[in-house]
Amino acid sequence: MKTARRAASIGASATVAITSRAKALIAEGVDVVTLSAGEPDFATPGFVVDATVAALKSGHTSYAPVGGVPALRDAVAERFGREYGVPFERDQIVVTVGGKEALYDLFQVLVEPGDEVIVPAPYWVSYPSQIALAGGRMVSVPCDASRGLALDLDAITAALTSRTVGIVVNSPNNPSGAVYDAESLAALAELAERHDLWIISDDIYSAVRYDGAPFTSVLHLRPELRERVFIVHGVAKTWSMTGFRVGFLAGSRVVLGRCMALQSQTITSATTFAQHGALAAVAGDDAFLGPWLTAYDERRRLVHGALDALDGVRCALPQGAFYVFPDMRGLLDRRHRGDLIGNDRHLAELLLERAHVAVVPGAAFGSPGFLRLSYVCGADRLALGMERIAAFVGELT
Ligand code: PLP
Fold first, then answer.
1. pLDDT of 93-122, one tens digit each?
2. N or C: which end of the chain has fewer CB within 10 A?
3. What b-and-e string marks burial along 180-191, b requiring 16 or more CB atoms within 10 Å of the CB?
4. Which domains does the chain have, with CATH numbers?
5. Distance 242 CA to ligand 1 centre (A)
6. By C-alpha distance, which of 104, 40, 93, 35 is closest to 69?
7. Are 323 and 177 in contact (CB under 8 A)?
8. Pocket test for ligand 1, best of 104, 107, 168, 204 (most atoms within 8 A of CB)
């Protein structure tokens, strides 16, 4: 039987592979500290759950309009208007099945076979596959490790070719936790304008920031470029609603119209009652977030301090999201119980099998030699994970 090459080249996500192996070990009775997940460990706020249940009970169980429940589109338009300082109308917002589907639709609509899309590395694991599924080619441009994995504008400029059609920017960043500075984002916007490129601004972690780091998007800096800037967002990370699968896409009406045509032939609409839960979230009070951010911040400091103190490990203090992304290159080519650690994948494997800590290798994010650790578990478990990693590093020869 013949199958399509298109999908055969798409590998399963490395995050999922590590998490599955960790689960298998846990099922065998091993006490694994899982630092590989990409979702908050807090329960979805009660008022959101109540609104979702009420929506189900009051009969919101049929198809929603393709672009989303109108009241949700309006609430997102209102919220984005406040957060980005640019007014939005309902038809400049589309509700999607998570931020992931917003990105998928955008690449399908914006990328032609052979087109190149610039993505600063480290990057979120799904960009390369989604760009490839649209027939495009991702051009990965390393961020500056000596400046906490900040954008490297010179390198981005050098990567431009006549085939470049757009740039993806994700700040706060998954996996590095870096929050890109306004100057670099302004330069990026300038580049996009000069070379007639679009920018996808994946702002899904915008609410998760520390030390007063401001949320800056290219749209704040250059509102007049709004026709070429697409915002991807959603309820997953801010409200701990990953399983609701509700995301948002904002941008040009023409492009959004095509995304909606695509949705009408693929998903029909995001789940109707989940959209009502999302409406409660977006229109509701964010007071629940304060204690969450305090807890994340405590954990961030704990993990950063523990890792940065290790011989051969360098770890920038991230300003956003809930990940740290230490540079482990100083541990490569050393031995653990006689086995040579060849690369970050091998290091992650050994950490899981021998130290019982699940982390994701940086190669999955386009930055070999690094590891991603999520701090979405309690401080006690984190401290245990850090002790185990320190003991493992102490055993290296
Ligand atoms: N963008 C980034 C950078 C992410 O980390 C994620 C999820 O991990 C998404 C987008 C998609 O989020 P969702 O589809 O759960 O809304």
1. 999 999 999 999 999 999 999 999 999 999
2. N
3. bbeebbbbbbeb
4. 5-43+288-394 (3.90.1150.10), 46-283 (3.40.640.10)
5. 9
6. 93
7. yes
8. 204
